Amino acid sequence: xxxxxxxxxxxxxxxxxxxxxxxxxxxLEAGHGGEAIERLKTAPGVSLAMVDWNMPVxxxxxxxxxxxxxxxxxxxxxxxxxxxSESAQVMKALDAGANEYVMKPxxxxxxxxxxxxxxxxxxxxxx
Amino acid sequence: xxxxxxxxxxxxxxLVTNVxxxxxGISFEADRDYRAPTAEAYWRLATLAIxxxxxxxxxxxxxxxxxxxxGSALFSxxxxxxxxSMLDDSLCELLNMxxxxxxxxxxxxxxxxxxxxxxxxxxSTRVERALREGVMLRSPxxxxxxxxxxxxxx
Lengths: 127, 154
What we know:
The complex is a heterodimer. Chain A has a 5-stranded parallel sheet with strand order 2-1-3-4-5, sandwiched between helices. Chain A has a single domain (2-117), classed as 3-Layer(aba) Sandwich (Rossmann fold), CATH 3.40.50.2300. Chain A is globular. Chain A is built from 5 helices and 5 strands; from the N terminus they run βαβαβαβαβα. By secondary structure, chain A is an alpha/beta fold. In chain A, helix 4 links the parallel strand 4 (77-82) and strand 5 (100-103). Chain A is 43% helix and 21% strand. By secondary structure, chain B is of the alpha+beta class. Chain B has a single domain, classed as CheC-like (Chemotaxis protein chec). Chain B is 41% helix and 19% strand. Chain B has 4 helices and 6 strands. In chain B, strand 5 and strand 6 (144-151) form a beta hairpin. In chain B, helix 1 (9-24) crosses helix 3 and helix 2 packs across helix 3. Chain B is globular and about 45 Å long. The mean pLDDT of chain B is 88. Chain A binds chain B through residues 8-12, 14-15, 18, 54-56, 83-86, 88, 104-107, and chain B through 18-19, 22-23, 71, 74-76, 85-86, 89-90, 92-93, 96-97, 99-101, 103-104, 109, 111-114.
């Protein structure tokens, strides 16, 4: 299983990537939405993308919209990772095609629980 | 705190600790005794704008030791292995999350801007105001984190 972590923060890519590796994912990284689209084109095995909302060049919302509009990756699970905590922002992301969302700050267990809801991690996490 | 006033020092300490305790295992309390600003306190300074009907700017700065402690905890690596970009990234990402907490506490329906490390000439201006009007937060390990929430344009 391959997962793509899309975040302009190296620290966040490492933190999220560490949890995903623990769950058995091979982790790819991108610093913004545009770079993530390019990664998806060359890595057809990616089944999950963890996407930050606030990024330069192409933000997470624009990335989700572009991925779903293109129709090239219908099986790709998209999880927004965001500080945008208002329900309106969450609804906007889900309406655009995101499958789940995680609010920053988060713990590893919260991430695992969200992935379990998508069938990508064991129920109750690994810890 | 009502939604129209800016957060008081104790509220800021709680909001910042929500972030730092979850992500780094470090908590902060407002340091009411903090008086004299020193160059040590603003080794790195990051800003984040929240543009909109009520535009705000959130500023966060810390000493080299403070940045290293936060960066080390966030990256889960020894402080001596952190390079400059990692220290900058840590401060910016913690500011991003703290700004999200502040925005939520104020009930603002406005998107966060991107965090950035301040460079001259903005740095000198921001440092001067932050040292005068900011709130010093202090961890049990005595690391200082200076935070300043201001109406944009001020």
